[in-house]
């Protein structure tokens, strides 16, 4: 049985941020995540490090948190934040009154803006719709949520934090009405482990209520599903937002070699309800094409969805709900943290760790805003072309991931699954969506003794099923042709349909 001071359930940005803060304040802890890091909303987001512009009109408090955290994260996380800058684009028909309000509130919140004429905006983003009325610059950035989680966890690992990925919390152990530990199942072999602690933190995102109920508590949440689509080109070097009250398909975010368009907002009951509906793909394509006409002629390579763990509110419109966060003390040794944004994860972690320090009667202050994220020396940073210097022996051509990168991650303790390689190296995240590189990476995992040939074939089959689920809603035109090519490689050359 493992004993520690604090158990964190959930390895999204919130849980990983808390692990880092506890580590820097010298508190022993154990983080438990049922899959890999960033498997929930964190890995399903746009990867937008908000300037706050998107919330400044309706939720100025969250906007103020976003701009403050944006400035901190670009300083401490240089290798996972691409300072692209952002534009709010006003198209014909978009309200001038909203634009005036937006500018006034940005000034009051400290979000730097500049109003650009259409020609100046087109100089910055040549693919913009040439009939735009104007554009306003904001300090938005693109951020890699996977790298962000890994780097936060590095600080924890370096200071003796126990990190259990691929472990699902099945039960919370209570003694005399107090939470004293958890039972977690190791996903790969089914082994049940018992971990004891003085405080349990529930950072389970959209699953917070389910986790709290294991201890007989409730966390009231509004669950809002958002879907996104990925186009196979980087059609813009800046984040593009539509200058209007938040609605479907307002955002286009560059992400290394591709760009992401999102999002929708649909209330769901079940946090595992991640189906992307054809009408969502249509809406997102239409709205992205309104800002960037070229989007409509570009191949869509993937769809995906995530569920926002929003504070509970009396409305069916997820967009009306504050993006603020709340810490709930269940008064039985368990604390839950809900709401917030990826952008504000560090602040959320700071407040949660302050609460834990109060419980322990300790005063060590938070340093996460000053100390750079550790482990960045292993990353090439931006732009993607920096990786060209390691051009030999490339395993993933889209994202320029070398054999050396794959081997380095494969050899690490805790690497068990192809997703572990993908999240840490970006292998398979580019235009081919892993179609041409996943089997190579699995071959390396076999060579390094991480898995048997039978396991790697099973994992490859599972990967192909997941990949197809994401691609299916976008299967037409060139993408359909590409899928036929991928299918013939896997079925025709690699004979994946046969029993191995
Ligand atoms: C479509 C979409 C787009 C978004 N875009 C942005 C954006 O661009 N910028 C931004 O700032 N924010 C964005 N957000 C919001 C942001 O993604 C979330 O607020 C944030 O990632 C939540 O992080 P989290 O760690 O609290 O939750 P999650 O990332 O959901 O993490 C919870 C974790 O708990 C794990 N877990 C659940 N049950 C168990 C269990 N029993 N045992 C062990 N582990 C368990 C899950 O596997 C999961 O990994 C977006 C959200 C969505 C849905």
List keywords for this structure.
500 residues, six-stranded mixed beta sheet, nine-stranded mixed beta sheet, FAD/NAD(P)-binding domain, D-Amino Acid Oxidase, Chain A, domain 2, 13 helices, binds flavin-adenine dinucleotide, alpha+beta, 32% helix, 3 domains
Could you walk me through the main structural features you see in this protein, from its secondary elements to its overall organization?
With 500 residues, this protein is α+β, with helices and mostly antiparallel strands. The chain folds into three domains: 2-41 and 146-221 and 322-360, FAD/NAD(P)-binding domain (3-Layer(bba) Sandwich); 76-143 and 222-312, D-Amino Acid Oxidase, Chain A, domain 2 (2-Layer Sandwich), CATH 3.30.9.10; 383-493, no CATH class. It has 13 helices and 24 strands. The chain has helices spanning 13-24, 60-76, 96-109, 118-124, 145-158, 208-213, 278-291, 345-360, 403-410, 418-425, 438-447, 453-471, 477-493; strands at 2-3, 6-9, 29-32, 48-49, 81-82, 86-90, 114-116, 134-138, 141-143, 162-164, 167-175, 178-186, 192-196, 199-202, 221-231, 239-242, 251-255, 258-262, 266-267, 300-311, 325-329, 334-339, 394-396, 401-402. Strands 6, 7, 8, 15, 16, 17, 18, 19 and 20 form a nine-stranded mixed sheet that branches. The longest helix is centred in the last third of the chain and has 19 residues, at 453-471. The mean pLDDT is 93. It binds flavin-adenine dinucleotide. Flavin-adenine dinucleotide binds next to α1, β11, β15 and β20.
């Amino acid at each position: 049985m493992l004993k520690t001071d604090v158990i964190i359930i959930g390895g999204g940005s919130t849980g990983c941020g808390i692990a880092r803060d506890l580590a820097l304040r010298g508190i022993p802890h154990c983080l438990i995540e049922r899959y890999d890091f960033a498997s929930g909303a964190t890995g399903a987001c746009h990867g937008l490090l908000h300037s706050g512009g998107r919330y400044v009109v309706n939720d100025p408090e969250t906007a103020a948190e976003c701009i403050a955290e944006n400035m901190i994260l670009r300083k401490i996380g240089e290798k996972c934040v691409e300072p692209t800058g952002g534009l709010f684009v006003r198209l014909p028909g978009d309200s001038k009154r909203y634009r005036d309000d937006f500018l006034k509130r940005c000034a009051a919140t400290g979000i730097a803006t500049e109003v650009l004429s259409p020609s100046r905006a087109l100089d910055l983003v040549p693919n913009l719709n040439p009939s735009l009325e104007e554009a306003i610059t904001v300090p938005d950035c693109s951020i890699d949520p996977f790298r962000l989680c890994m780097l936060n966890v590095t600080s924890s690992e370096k200071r003796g934090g126990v990190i259990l990925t691929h472990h699902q919390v099945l039960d919370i152990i209570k003694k005399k009405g107090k939470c004293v530990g958890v039972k977690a199942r190791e996903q790969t072999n089914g082994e049940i482990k018992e971990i004891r602690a003085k405080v349990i933190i529930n950072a389970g995102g959209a699953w917070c209520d389910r986790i709290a109920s294991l201890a007989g508590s409730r966390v009231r949440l509004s669950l809002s599903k958002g879907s996104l689509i990925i186009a196979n080109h980087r059609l813009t070097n800046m984040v593009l937002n539509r200058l209007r009250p938040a609605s479907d398909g307002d955002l286009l975010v560059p992400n290394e070699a591709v760009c992401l368009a999102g999002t929708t907002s649909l209330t769901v009951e079940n946090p595992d309800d991640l189906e992307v509906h054809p009408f969502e793909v249509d809406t997102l394509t239409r709205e992205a094409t309104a800002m960037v006409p070229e989007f409509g002629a570009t191949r869509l390579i993937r769809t995906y969805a995530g569920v926002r763990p929003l504070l509970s509110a009396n409305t069916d419109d997820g967009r009306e709900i504050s993006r603020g966060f709340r810490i709930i003390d269940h008064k039985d040794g368990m604390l839950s943290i809900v709401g917030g944004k990826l952008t504000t994860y560090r602040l959320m972690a700071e407040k949660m760790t302050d609460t834990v320090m109060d419980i322990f009667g300790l005063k060590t202050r938070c340093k996460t805003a000053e100390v750079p994220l550790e482990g960045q020396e292993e990353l090439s940073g931006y732009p993607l072309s920096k990786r060209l210097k390691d051009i030999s022996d490339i395993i993933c051509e889209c994202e320029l991931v070398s054999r050396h990168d794959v081997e380095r991650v494969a050899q690490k303790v805790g690497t068990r699954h192809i997703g572990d390689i993908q999240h840490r190296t970006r292998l398979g995240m580019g235009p081919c969506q892993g179609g041409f590189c996943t089997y190579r990476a699995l071959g390396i995992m076999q060579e390094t003794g991480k898995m048997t040939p039978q396991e790697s074939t099973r994992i490859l089959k599972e990967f192909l099923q997941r990949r197809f689920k994401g691609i299916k809603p976008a299967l037409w035109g060139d993408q359909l042709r590409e899928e036929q090519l991928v299918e013939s490689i896997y079925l025709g050359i690699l004979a994946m349909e046969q029993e191995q």
